[in-house]
Amino acid sequence: MVSARSSALVALMVAATTALLLTQQADAGRVLTGDLCKNTDFPALCSSMVKSKVNAEKATKSAINNIILKTREAKLSTSMTKGDKSLLDVCNEMYDTALSDLDTAVQNLKSGDKPSVQTNLSAVISDLETCVDTFAEANAKLPYEKMINLLEQMTSNSLALAAKLP
Ligand SMILES: *[C@@H]1O[C@H](CO)[C@@H](O)[C@H](O)[C@H]1NC(C)=O
C-alpha cells in the first residue's frame, strides 16, 4: 500500500520534472532565437527570416536563403517592367550579381569562412545601391523601390546574424 503510493508519487515527480525540463528547453529555444534577432536593425523581419533556428549558423543560412528567394522574385518583376531599358538592364544585371554574391556567401558559410560571408553579404548591399543610384542619377522613378528596400533590410539583418557566427 505504502509502496504503491510512493511509487505513484515518484512517477508523478518524474512526470513533473520532465515537464519542467521540456518547458525550460522550449524557453531556451525561444530566448536564443530572440537573442539572435535582438540587435538586428529589423528584428520582426529577422524573426520571420530565421524562424526557430537557434544557432547563428543555421539562422544565417536560413536568412540568406530567404534573400535568395526574394531576389529571384525581384529579378522576375524587374524583367517584366516597362520603362527605360538601359536603366532597367542595370538592375537586371545587378540582381544576377547579387544572386552570385549570395551563393558565394552560402558557400563561405559552409566552409566556416566568416569574414568572406560578411564581405559577400556587404557586396549585396552595394549591388542593390547600384540599381538605386542609377535611377537616382537619371532622375527616374525606381520601380519596385519597396522590394529593394526590403532586400536591403533583409541583407542588413543577415549581416547582423553573420556577425554572431563563431
Ligand atoms: C566572397 O568570398 C570569396 C571567398 O569565397 C572572396 O574571395 C571574395 O573576395 C568575396 N567577395 C567579395 C565581393 O568580397
CA radius of gyration is 23 Å
Which compounds are bound in this model?
Answer: 2-acetamido-2-deoxy-beta-D-glucopyranose
Which whole number gives the mean pLDDT? 85
Which band does the percent of strand residues land in?
Answer: under 5%
The number of distinct helices, counting runs of at least 4 residues, comes to 6
Count of individual beta strands:
0
| N→C terminal distance | 56 Å
**Tell me about the biggest sheet?**
none
Short description:
About 85% of the residues lie in helices and about 0% in strands.
Structure write-up:
With 166 residues, the chain is mainly α. Helices cover 83% and strands 0% of the residues. The protein has 6 helices and no strands. The chain has helices at residues 2-38, 43-50, 56-79, 85-110, 114-137, 145-162. The longest helix is centred in the N-terminal third of the chain and has 37 residues, at 2-38. The relative contact order is 0.14. The model is unreliable at 17-32 (pLDDT under 50). The structure holds 2-acetamido-2-deoxy-beta-D-glucopyranose. 2-acetamido-2-deoxy-beta-D-glucopyranose binds at residues 104, 108, 116, 119-120, 123.
